[in-house]
Design brief:
Radius of gyration: 17 Å
Bound molecules: 1,3-dihydroxyacetonephosphate
Order of helices and strands: EHEHEHEHHEHHHEHHEHEH
Helix content: 40-55%
Strand order of the largest sheet: 1-2-3-4-5-6-7-8
Number of domains: 1
Distance between the termini: 13 Å
Shape: globular
CATH class: Alpha Beta
Number of strands: 8
Largest sheet: 8 strands, parallel, barrel
Length: 251
Amino acid sequence: MRKPFLAGNWKMNLDRRSGVALARTLAARSVTWSGREVAIFPAFVYLDEIVRATAGSGVRVGAQNLCDEKSGAFTGEVSAAMLKDVGATLVLCGHSERRHLYGEDDRLVNRKLHAALSQGLDVILCVGETLEERKSGSTEARLSRQMTLGLAGVSAEDLARITIAYEPVWAIGTGVNASPAQAGEAHTYLRGLLSGLYGESAAAAVRIQYGGSVKADNIQTLMRAPNVDGALVGGASLQSESFLGIVEVAL
Ligand code: 13P
């Protein structure tokens, strides 16, 4: 059985005070949670403090991005080893905003993923089609390419440390979530791709989160769709009431 995984991607939001307060609230509530995994993704500069604010709780802390290189002259970048050093245990790779606003391609996403794995970080690999791709019937081709190139060189053993997030670009921050049928169809396709690459039993163990305008009032129906194992939440993860509403109704 796959344990539901609910994650909050804070993006470039919240300051030190509000981020620490939110993290503390979640950490305190986590003693009442069972049967689910929860993670938050603050901005780099607050990771250290948020890790300390959640220490010993059921809230994991991850980074939104990392550098594909190990160390050296890469001004403005942050390495996997640095993330590990401050206590982050996971990292997002290939988020739609990294791909579309900062031009990250599948090969760079793959190098980042390997950099993370090599330091023992778990990874959430984000994939998703644009509205144009959906309209032109190329959703599956896009997902297949992102998965195949994103996971290139990843062993079956390392696959156990990877979560997939299906985030259709048209659903991110728009208030228009994928319908449960659309999410179920895409997630089932993604699991089929994983089966083809790694075999059925390895594929069956991978969590596939849905992301894109997730709220407390749509999480339950989305989670009932086939192969939807949790959510990667943006806007609704920025306040304790709305994120707890998702985390606590999600099962
Ligand atoms: P929203 O929940 O704000 O649509 O963002 C989704 C997302 O991009 C999470 O990574």
